[in-house]
Amino acid sequence: MKLFIDTANVEEIREAASYGILAGVTTNPSLIAKEGRKLEDVIQEIASLVNGPISAEVSEGDAESMIAQGRELAKIHPNIVIKLPMTWAGIKACKTLVSEGIKTNVTLCFSVDQALLAMEAGATYVSPFMGRLDDADMEAEALIRKIADVKALYGYETEIISASIRNLKHVEMAALAGSDIATIPYKVLMKMIEHPLTTAGLKIFADAAK
Ligand code: G3P
């Protein structure tokens, strides 16, 4: 399973990229707003740090305005992926942008039916939200598994990005359920290396080495 980072903070991206395990970046309007910078400026800087897909989300609106904004954002760098909402306008924009060779990520996916629409529209990626399903007491792992099953059954090329990841359990569930990618916040990504027995083992070896 490929690992993306879910942030618009360039310092977090720079560090995560330095470990050599980062395959891409996803952003959303909330993450961009947190940085207090213009979407275009942040995306451009991220593209200079990471050689992989970078999702930039369009503002809500009708299909035509999403398509126009998507075309502009895609001009920033060949790695830009246009993130579109799971609405009919988003699906329509997805179909058009994909036909122009622009990569897309249909976001805010909470059901197999929605994922199916994104896959039929030729989306490069579809993003089911694990944490928000958990918040609503709905089965996150089961959804990822079902989408992965549908993808395999019909040979869709759309890649599944498990998003809204809040903890290590979500990363593990995404991997076991057959997600292609997990997009992980910086803090959770950093925790992936930790285990108390590793810490204890390191101390034993360090003491012995003295
Ligand atoms: O990129 C979308 C996703 O990461 C949102 O996460 O934690 O706001 O549900 P969260």
Fraction of residues in helix: 40-55%
Would you count the extended β strands for me? 8
Low-pLDDT runs of 5+ residues are none
Strand content: 15-25%
User: Would you list the SSEs in sequence order as H and E?
Assistant: EHEHHEHEHEHEHHEHEHH
Small ligands present:
SN-glycerol-3-phosphate
**Taking strands numbered 1, 2, ... along the chain, how are they ordered across the largest sheet?**
1-2-3-4-5-6-7-8
What is the CA–CA distance across the termini?
Answer: 38 Å
Q: Count of helices? A: 11
**Mean pLDDT over the residues:** 97
Q: Structural class of the secondary elements?
A: alpha/beta
Shape type: globular
Question: What does it look like?
Answer:
The structure is a single chain. The chain is α/β, with parallel strands linked by helices and 210 residues long. It has eleven helices and eight strands. An eight-stranded parallel beta barrel has the order 1-2-3-4-5-6-7-8, surrounded by seven helices. The site of SN-glycerol-3-phosphate (G3P) has 9 residues, from helix 7.
Key features of this structure:
alpha/beta; 8 strands; 19% strand; binds SN-glycerol-3-phosphate
A few lines on this structure:
With 210 residues, the chain is α/β, with parallel strands linked by helices. It has helices at residues 10-18, 29-35, 39-49, 63-74, 88-99, 112-120, 130-135, 140-154, 168-176, 186-191, 196-209; strands at residues 2-6, 22-26, 54-57, 80-85, 103-109, 125-128, 159-162, 181-184.
